[in-house]
Structures are given as C-alpha cells and as structure tokens.
Amino acid sequence: SSSTTWTMADSGGHCITLENVKEAAERIKGMANRTPVLTSDFFNEGDKKLFFKVEAMQRTGSFKFRGALNATKCELAQTTGSHLSIVTHSSGNHAQAVALAAKVASTEARPVTATIVMPSNAPEIKQAGVRRFGGNIVLVANTNEAREEGAERIMKETGASFIHPSEDPRVIAGQGTASLELLEQLREIGCEKPDAVIIPVGGGGLASGNAVALRGMLGDKVKIILAEPAKLDDAKRSFDSGTLLQHAPDNKLDSVADGLKTTLGPNTWPVVRDLVDDIFTVSERDILRHTKCIWEQLKVCIEPSAGVGVAVARGDAFNEKYRPEDGIQNVAVILCGGNVDIIATTKKMEEHGL
C-alpha cells in the first residue's frame, strides 16, 4: 500500500521487512528493468555453478535505480503539494539513480525535481549522467561534512525531501527487489534456489535489502555472503568484532572499487550483523582480474565494484569453506553496476600485469 509506515516492529529490530521489499517490487514494476541472470560454462567448476544477476544492465547502470525509484514514489504518495523536490548527496551511482527516478516519477500534475550535492572532484562522466537525466547539481568540497551540510541547506531553503543513498529504509527495500527477481529467474531456468548469494558491500543498502529478502524467502536454506575490497574492509572488521566500526583513520581509501568506499550505518549494520553468514575480502589485483574476466567471458562491462563479488566467488577462501559436497552448488553473484571509466581501469589492469 502507498501508506506504508516504516517501523522497527515485527522485523527483529531491522529497518525493513520482506513485506516492504515486496511492496517496493510492485511500486517499481515496469519502470525498473528486470535485469538478466547470465551463466557461462567458463565459470562452472564440477558441481559448482555461478549465476550472475546483471544489475549493470539496470537503468542508470546500477542497482541504485531500484531504491531511488521506490523512495521517490513513496515520497510522492506520502506528501502533498503541487510539486515534489528531492535532494541527495552522492558522487556516484546513487546520484544518477535519483536524477532519473525523479524524471520517471514526475507527472504533469505533480512534477518531481532532483538536486544532487556532489563533491567538486566527482568524475565528469558521473556529473554528465546526472545532468542527462535532468538532475540539478550543486558542487561542494570533497568531504562528507560538506556534502551533508550542502544537502541540509537545500532542504531548509527549498523544503526538499532527503533520500539517503544507503540508510533510507525505502531505498534499502528497493535494493532488495533484485533478489526477488533473482529467485524467480533461477526457477525459470530450472534452478530451485541459490545455495549461496554473494553481494558486494559498501554502505550496505544492497547487502541489507537483499539479506532481508533472501532470509525472508529462504530462511536458513541460503548462505548470504558479502564481498569487500581488502583496502575498504570496514564491514569485515565490524562483522568480526560484532560492533559497528568506521574505516581506520590512516586508510587512504584508494581502491579500484570506488563504489564501495561508504561505511555501514545504523540501519544497514544490524541487518548485516544478524542476517549475513560471512564476509570475504579480496585484493586489488583479484578485483581487476575478475572484472576483466567478466568483460571477456560474459561480454558485460561491469565496474570493479561488481568484480569484487566475482573475485570472492572464484577465490580460494570462499570455495574452501563452502564446498559443493556440503551442499553449496548453485552460487548467485549480484553484479551491482557498470558505470566504469574503461580506459582508466584497463590502465590499472596493465599496471597489475593482467
């Protein structure tokens, strides 16, 4: 229903439930792409088969469109007034997602405008994407504080509604719709269920939304595995210690998986803590190697943040712990996005001798 209120009740203290994800799926139906699930014999070894959910083929080039559209449509249903203004801060995929979500949710009766606060050093290609989808850009200094202050100022001045990239429960519910599709699509190709699903983690919107969806649908019959760059290992460190940690103060955050720099927050962390089975980290070389592998074998131009999940799926640590003989045969990997500077990335591949 359009009047959903987001409460912690009935959800084990988590910010969303399976029901919220199902409602989100109805809301975004026909506007978000039902992205393909691809397989390739190249990635199958013995009894272990990999299935790739290609969110790189989502509108705006990443899963973020799901959450942005769900949040925008919820906001439309819950507010009145002749038009709706939304604001967010993002240097990356969420920025383009919110810009397009505003555009497609607009009607003549109620136009929606989006303002995106971006750091002044955000790649020109990402700024161009926001503009192409009709978003207004406000550039600020390259700090989280400046971004947050910029968004607050716009909210005060214009009365705009804020949509957080990974902490907004409506965004989290929207991201979880990827798994509802995945389970349906696997059944269509004769795979009863995934034994494990591997999800990249940064701010945790994708990870927590899909963890709620998968646990809700399959209970403990599925292993939920998160994938993280070793250079951006806040989720792994938090998970191992049982407390929410930020990046170490001396961490330069210089990973090729630039989409995963954000840390878990108060809404995403409890879901990760309670519902995830394992978090594996991978090296920069492995991320690039498996990104290249997907380019070559699946013919899909993923960004390195998506290569992180592939690196875990094909890495020794995961495969030694989760073996086909222990019932882990069908493994799904969410390829989260495809907004990549190809030339810069191939240069990095060359530097690593790939």
Automatic annotation (TrEMBL):
Q: Which cofactor names does the annotation list?
A: Mg(2+); Ca(2+); Mn(2+); pyridoxal 5'-phosphate
Ranges where the Tryptophan synthase beta chain-like PALP domain occurs = 33-337
Alphabetized, the UniProt keywords read: Lyase, Magnesium, Pyridoxal phosphate
The protein's GO terms of the molecular function aspect are: ATP binding; L-serine ammonia-lyase activity; magnesium ion binding; pyridoxal phosphate binding; serine racemase activity; threonine racemase activity
Q: Which GO terms describe its biological process?
A: D-serine biosynthetic process
Top-level taxon of origin: Eukaryota
Pfam families the record matches? PALP
User: Which family does the record claim for this protein?
Assistant: Belongs to the serine/threonine dehydratase family.
- Its protein name is Tryptophan synthase beta chain-like PALP domain-containing protein
